[in-house]
């Protein structure tokens, strides 16, 4: 799922205590029955619409936080969850991470994104504090972010990308013994220093998008000898050395220069152009009066 829209900006703001796809065919998709069909007394459900998309928010009424757990309360953004997963299934899978206090769902094409406030288990909290970029949820890899991040923050973290096209005739032996006896995904993470990845299937084609923490890690990975072709997914944007204030000043100056150029092309103002014509009319009038006086004399 591409990150193409801001998700739940109103929910994410003001949250405290912030620290910073692989599709498994063996996992059967759940039904589309969502929480709320048979309302539970332990859950409060609300729905809202924004830009033609529906956001479903659930609040767990039994959300007491003990003093010993306060440091483990996190707000997370989670991507790459299949849209076929019901809200019940997602909540059930998140039990492996900890106890959910609040959660919101938003479907985006084949996937859905989730914002959640959760008490992470000690193990999951350690992974989060260590800034891992992805985590297993119900047998698939999902990307997780700080809950208060905006769209630009997510894109900035994942701007160093590469893509590997998996050949149609790729075998399980190749996947399990990709380079030097290492399985494909183990090679990506341990040898290639890949922070996270997504396996995408599109019209019979399979490819993996890889995300790197630094440009150096990306270039080092491109230099590795491996069986399948690797390409840079997109060029990272050039960092700007000018402030927004300087940009505004340059834009203002450009507008002034453009206005000055237009005035130069137009030439003298309308007032100055009409002045000679007015003088000529005055002279003609005086000459006519003189002729009339001569005739009357």
Automatic annotation (TrEMBL):
Biased composition of type Basic and acidic residues is found at 254-265
Q: Which residue ranges does the record annotate as region Disordered? A: 1-25, 232-283
The source's superkingdom equals Eukaryota
Record-given protein name: RRM domain-containing protein
């Amino acid at each position: 799922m591409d990150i193409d829209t801001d998700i739940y900006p109103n929910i994410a703001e003001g949250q405290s205590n912030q620290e910073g796809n692989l599709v498994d065919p063996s996992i059967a998709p759940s039904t589309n029955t969502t929480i709320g069909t048979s309302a539970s007394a332990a859950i409060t459900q609300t729905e809202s619409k924004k830009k033609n998309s529906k956001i479903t928010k659930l609040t767990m009424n039994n959300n007491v936080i003990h003093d010993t757990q306060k440091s483990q309360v996190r707000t997370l953004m989670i991507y790459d969850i299949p849209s076929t997963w019901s809200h019940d299934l997602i909540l059930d899978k998140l039990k492996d991470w900890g106890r959910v206090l609040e959660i919101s769902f938003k479907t985006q094409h084949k996937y859905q994104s989730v914002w959640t406030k959760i008490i992470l288990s000690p193990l999951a909290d350690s992974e989060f504090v260590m800034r891992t970029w992805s985590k297993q949820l119900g047998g698939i890899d999902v990307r997780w972010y700080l809950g208060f991040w905006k769209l630009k923050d997510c894109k900035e973290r994942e701007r160093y990308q590469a893509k590997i096209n998996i050949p149609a005739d790729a075998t399980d032996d190749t996947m399990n013994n990709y380079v030097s006896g290492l399985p494909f995904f183990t090679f990506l993470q341990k040898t290639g220093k890949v922070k996270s990845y997504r396996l995408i299937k599109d019209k019979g084609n399979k490819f993996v998008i890889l995300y790197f923490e630094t440009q150096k890690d990306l270039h080092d990975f491109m230099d590795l000898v491996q069986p399948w072709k690797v390409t840079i997914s997109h060029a990272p944007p050039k960092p700007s050395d000018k402030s927004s204030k300087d940009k505004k000043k340059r834009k203002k100056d450009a507008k002034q220069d453009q206005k000055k150029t237009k005035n130069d092309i137009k030439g003298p103002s309308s007032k100055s152009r009409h002045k000679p014509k007015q003088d000529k009319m005055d002279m003609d009038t005086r000459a006519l009066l003189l002729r009339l006086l001569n005739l009357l004399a």
